[in-house]
Amino acid sequence: MFKAALPLVLAAAFLLCPSLATAADSHAGAPGFMTEMKQFPQLEAEKGLTTIGEKLAFRAKEQPFLLTASIIFLLAIIHTFFAIPITKLAHKVQHDHDARIRKLKAASGQSAVADDMVSFKATILHFLGEVEAIFGIWVLVLIVAMGVTQGMTEMKAYFMGVNYTEPMFVVIIMTLASTRPVMNFAESCLSLFARIGKQTPSAWWLSILIIAPLLGSFITEPGAMTIAAMLLAKKFYKLKPSPKFAYATLGLLFVNISVGGVLTNFAAPPVLMVASKWQLTSVEMFIHFGEKALLSIVVSTLLYFLVFRKELARMQQDAVDHDDDGKGDLMESRAKVPFFVTLTHLAFMGWTVAFAHYPPLFIGGFLFFLAFSQATAHHQTRINLRGPILVGFFLGGLVIHGGLQGWWLAPIISSLTELPLFIGSTILTSFNDNAAITFLASQVESLSPQLKYAVLAGAVTGGGLTVIANAPNPAGQALLARFFGDGVSPIKLFLGAFIPTIIVSLCMLLFPDKGIDEMFALPAPTTEAVETPATPDH
Fold first, then answer.
1. How many Å apart are CA 207 and CA 194, to the nearest integer?
2. pLDDT at position 324, please?
3. Alpha helices (runs of H) in 151-239, residue ranges in sequence order
4. Which of 80, 195, 247, 344 is least surrounded by Cβ atoms within 10 Å, i.e. has the fewest?
């Protein structure tokens, strides 16, 4: 009797849960552990806690869940280092499964079809080895931990309070930037610079790694990353560079994109996070960061060019000579796209960038774009959303985890002086999104102009060291991962980006800039003069 009624009971409970959750959510505000995190500085001041160790110990004791969340985030980071071995295991399991199925089918006189080759175990392993999925996978662990320790209402309140605008924006800007009209237009623009070097592999390599990152200051860093990565795949990686050169190029790309977006105040995520709070204008960013960014990009790229010039020369020898000048080049004929189609695509990109912080507007614009692309399908390549959605999934997981790391990041940032803060910001960016670093710094009151410069410059500098250091990096990795065997090695990526990061550091630190104090100085609050009534004479 009980067994027969059990399914009905479970079904009733399942149907009632949404209504109960709705009733509970109607009274839910900010989760308690987030409210406690904001109160930590005041409580520490009252208790006289001053050292980093004392503050971290106090915070972990007051709200143990925050420590649990950071451990889960650490495990997710460690997981990324095992992505390649897991992927190799997935391939082996799939290979063994295919061989076994073919043998069984042959024994019965049948032929194996595609559906027979599906291996649940291999598919799960492949998913676990997908770098873009890792942080999302560990979000499931976070949900369970948060639900068990804090309750379902608190868990839902936290997830509803996370800002998912950036992941959604990256999905759409990646999709737009990867379309044929936009790619043809970008390739035509970069070819103007590549023609100076006869469009040889060296000329295209230099053009993509210098010009494309600077475009990021105007079309946003994710847009520039998409264009640069796709052009590198087409013009460079298809020539099969050595693994050393391939990782050096990927690391250089990540660093240059991170630095190239600082010429304006809206294109680079770490700048955007503080532009309003610190009242930074595009003119100020161009004056105080632009020349350093440009110099570091040019120096880093030329240095790598000198190091790998022999390999680039070999690529030139292997390339076809299209213009009969005795030098191999990368000239290619492109499918012509009507001007109005290209112009409309650029308008959609402009709309998306202009309303990057308003999801209803840029998502609505994207829906119109899909309709336009269908109407002009004969001028389009097939729109593949798998890559952009995976990158959005990666960034969504990152912002969920990152929102719980302020309890330990803030004390570290607020306790450092200028040079240690710059170095600390650069290093911390490797383990957390650089936009989170600058956002947390903006919450620290009374930071001096020099400290503001140090944390912003450090966050920008360290944006290429790991795939999680800067929001556009997952997009670049997703587009280029197929050229790295079983996947991109985090350690080799770090080594490829290390020297350019040092060059950016030197440019940011050693070039004198007397305007920093004025740039970061906030205007003094204005107070209205109160007229004092005249005192009557007695």
1. 6
2. 63
3. 152-161, 165-177, 180-194, 201-219, 221-235
4. 195
Q: Which residue has the tokens 């050096």?
A: 248
> Quick one: tokens of 240?
């099969």
Given a contact cutoff of 8 angstroms between Cβ atoms, the answer to whether 484 and 83 are in contact is no
Q: How far apart are CA 495 and CA 484, in angstroms?
A: 15
Tens of pLDDT along 478-536?
A: 999 999 987 899 999 999 999 999 999 999 999 877 788 888 876 655 544 444 444 44
What are the DSSP calls for 223-292, one per residue? HHHHHHHHHHHHHTGGG---HHHHHHHHHHHHHHHHHHGGGSSSSSHHHHHHHTTTT--HHHHIIIIIHH
Of the candidates 225, 228, 229, 222, the residue with the CA atom closest to the CA atom of residue 269? 222
Tell me, what's the pLDDT at 532?
47
Q: Cα 473 vs. chain centroid, distance in angstroms?
A: 5
Is residue 495 exposed (0-12), middle (13-18) or buried (19+ Cβ within 10 Å)?
Answer: middle
Q: What is the Cα–Cα distance from 23 to 35, expressed in whole angstroms?
A: 22
Buried b (16+ CB within 10 A) or exposed e, 15-52: eeeeeeeeeeeeebeebbbbebbeebbeebeeeebeee
Supply φ then ψ for residue 338, to 5 degrees: -55, 145
In sequence order, the 6+-apart residues with CB closer than 8 A to the CB of 327 are 198, 200, 316, 321
What pLDDT is recorded for position 525?
54
d(CA 68, CA 401): 11
As given in the structure block, the two tokens for residue 58 are: 């106090």
Report the distance separating Cα 137 and Cα 397, nearest Å. Answer: 8
Give every residue of the chain whose pLDDT is below 50, as ranges: 1-2, 4-24, 26-27, 527-538
- The pLDDT of residue 20 is 44
Alpha-carbon span 483 to 233, nearest angstrom: 8
> For residue 14, is it left (φ>0), alpha (ψ between -120 and 50) or beta?
alpha
pLDDT at 46: 93
Residue type for position 59: R
CB 216, CB 294: distance < 8 Å: no
Please, where are the H alpha helices in 481-537? 490-510, 516-520
Alpha-carbon gap, residue 243 to 82, rounded angstroms: 19
Closest among 281, 238, 261 to 504, alpha carbons compared: 261
Can you read off the two tokens belonging to residue 476? 């670049």
